[in-house]
Structure formats: C-alpha cells, structure tokens
Amino acid sequence: MDINQQLQIPTELVQSISADQAWHYYIVPTVSNSTSTKFFCSERIDIDDLQSELEILFGCDITFETVEEDLLKNALVRYYPKNNKGNNTSAQKFSGTYDDFLPKVISEAYGIGASDIHIEVYEELARIRLRVDGKLVERYRISSEEYPALVNKIKIQANLDIAEKRLPQDGRIFFKGEIGEFDIRVSSLPTMNGEKIVLRILSKDAGKFSLEKLGFSKEQLEVYLKSIQRPNGIVLISGPTGSGKTTTLYATLQLLNKEETNILTVEDPIEYTLEGINQVQLKEDIGLTFSSALRTFLRQDPDIIMLGEIRDKETAQMAIRAALTGHLVFSTIHTNSAWGTISRLVDMGIPPYLLAGTINLSMAQRLIRLLCPKCKQEKEVHSSIFPSNFSAPSNLRKHSVSVGCEHCYYTGYSGRKAIYELIPIENEISHLIRNNELNIEDLEVRNQLKFLQDSAWKLFASQLTSIEEVYPFFI
C-alpha cells in the first residue's frame, strides 16, 4: 500500500455510525442518503451475511465496496480512534442532551491526548475539532439548530451567563467520569454566527512534570538549574502561544516548592493548581493587573514570584524592582528568541544596566512533534530537503520521515518535545548588555552559545523528528 494513500470520509458520514459498530463489523461509511448507505469493507468479509444484518440494524438498503485490508484499517484508526486504554471512542451524533454527547467528546479528547476541544458554528453547520500534538483535526459536525443547546449546557456547567451572548466569558468545569477527574477551562467568544467555545483540558498530572523530561540537554539543564537556584534575579522564558512555557514554569515551581519557601503567582488564567503555592487569578476589569498584583506581592513576604507574562513597561519595572529587593522572579514574554527578549525590554524603556544586573537567564523554547517510533522510515539525506541558504552543521547521511500507523492514528507523529535556547546573563554577556551592545552575531561567535536552530538540528539528526517540523528553524 502507498503510505500516502488514504480513504477520505466526510465528517458527517463518520458520525453516522458508532466506533463500536465500525470496529465490530469492520466497515467505514462512504456514501449515504435517506434510503441507502454504502460501506467500505474488507475483501475477506462475507458480504451476504453482513448485508442482511446491517439492513436490519440501520433500516435501509446496504451496499459495499471492498478495499485492501491496510486501507480499511487505516481509515478505522483515523476516523474511529481508540483511546489510550484501548477502548473505542464514540462517534455518534449530538442528540441535544449534555449527558449523552458532551462527556463522550471530552472522554475521547482526553483518551487520545488532545489539549483543546474547539466547538465552532458557521452559517449552516457547526463542527467540533480536537487539537492533538499541536494540530487541529475535525471529529464531529452538528446542525446549527442543535448547536445553541450544546453551548447552553456547557455554559451552565461552567457557571457562565447563558443570557450573555455579546461578550466573551471564561469559566471552568470539573469533569468526573470513568476516565478520571480533571478541570476544563472554558472560553466563549461571540462570532458572526454564534458563540465559539474552546475547552482546554487541564490534566491533574501537570504537577508531576519534571524538568529532566521536558527536553533539556544535560548542559542546558545544568545552566537552567544554576539560574533558578539563585536567591534573587529574573528568569525569563519567551516563545509563542502553545510553545510549552507554562509547563516549564510549573515544573520549575514544583521543584522549588518547599515548606520553607513562600511562592506567589499571578496568572491569566490559572491553568493548573499546585498544592503549597499561592496562585492569584488576573482580573483586569476590576484593576487586578500583573503590575498591581506584583506591587501587593512585595508586601506578602515572598521568596519566589511568578508573573504569567510581562506585557508592558510598568510590569517590567515592577519585576526589576522585585529582583533588586532580593526576590527570585519568573515570567514569560512574547519574543522570537532569547536574545530578542533583551532587545524588547530595552525597547520598553528599561535601562540596560538594570537588565544586566537583574536577569539571571533569558530562555526561548518551542515544541517539536516527534516521529512515531513504530512507523517512521529512514531515508537518504539529499541537500534539496534543506533551505537553499542553510549550511548543515555536520555531514548527515540518513534522516527519518513520517509514515503513519494505527499507533499514531496515521499522523506519523506521537508526542512532542521542547527545544531550548538559553542565554545566561553573566560575565561578558552582562558587560555587553550594560554597554547596550546587542549585536547577536558577535555574541554567538565570542560565547559559543547554542540557539534554537542548534537544538532543532540535534533533534533532526537523531532521527526523532522530521525535516518538516524543523524546517522553519533552518530558514
């Protein structure tokens, strides 16, 4: 079978039968109308017996098209995935009942490791998509008439105002089911055709993350641990939304969380609750901003402070003040690189000499999808796979490409790993910042720093990921 060959099944057909039915009869729907349904089936199945049973079950004429066993199994895994416990997930239509449909969607998302559930409405239909390993995949479609009932049930569970449809709202649901107990962050956003709902699944296992498992190399971990074990200073983590900054911060706080240490955080929103840490939810509408919370924190006898994000000059100045008065401060900032963080703070109006004296470490990170170890395929390296202006740091003869199998739901990828870029602000680097010498080219040569491109290349050369995942870092 061609590894790129797949059966394409529309979402509305996928949900016409349940996952249990699809796997039990080893069928996948391909065409359906009010009087008949056509299924893909295996060449080894007795079609006459199966046809009689399905016509009784579905109450319509049934026809079949036989396909290769591998193609059919591919479609079953992609459209009717099994969760991590090996159970089939449901693919039934929404019946207007929260107790019937929504828990099944949440269970499916949790079972296959999805981070978010997107429920969005358009003019004639609504769809539900799951974000798995950073990518969205459509799983359900429901009619636009049934959509408001589903939204209202979610809003009631999240303690949101069901009458307010013009303004965004945020809430939380505590989910309890056979798969376990966990929190779900709910966000509603008014759109042209109705409210878009995003459910963020907050696993209680997040507090168990350890820095050793996140993706640091041995040398990077030593640098990071040295920076966070100082009694004062600032540790800044940069990267776009969804790059794992929050996970790194929580793993760090978990390590530093001791009985003799007072840790305060202000977050927007609080994604995970950590026992022994005082967490504050940002509420800008009533004046509880990052800067105002930090001002109060300084009167709460803290040892460690975590700011969800440095967004403006005032917050940056307060973070500097906290570091200067003997506190260890952690925060995030939206920049493209670790060195770009320094330039951004200078642009905000923070004097370079203050940055040189207070920042312990500037770090950038990204998340890279890992190839499925059960199906990745080794190939020869050709220069054509790299950008024209890219110079490979070493001579590489082999690399791995994504294929797809039932273990990775035919995506070719399984899990993600962080890559890091660390710049410890000490010695020569501190001197350069103090003198406002921000030429990154000189800095790289004189200090032999490792950047995101280096970390991406190491992951690619180890055949843990594909060229498609790391290509943006080579441009």
Features:
seven-stranded mixed β-sheet, globular, alpha/beta, 475 residues, single chain, six-stranded antiparallel β-sheet
Please provide a written account of the structure:
This protein is 32% helix and 28% strand. It has 475 residues and is α/β, with parallel strands linked by helices. Helix 12 (352-358) packs antiparallel against helix 13 (427-434). It is globular, with a radius of gyration of 26 Å.
Question: What is this entry, summarized?
Answer:
The chain contains 16 helices and 18 strands. With 475 residues, it is α/β, with parallel strands linked by helices.
Q: What is the average per-residue confidence, as pLDDT, rounded to a whole number?
A: 87
Largest beta-sheet characterization: 7 strands, mixed
Question: Distance N terminus to C terminus?
Answer: 34 Å
Radius of gyration: 26 Å
Basic shape: globular
Order of strands, widest sheet: 12-11-13-14-10-15-18
Count all strands and give the number: 18
Question: Please, how many helices?
Answer: 16
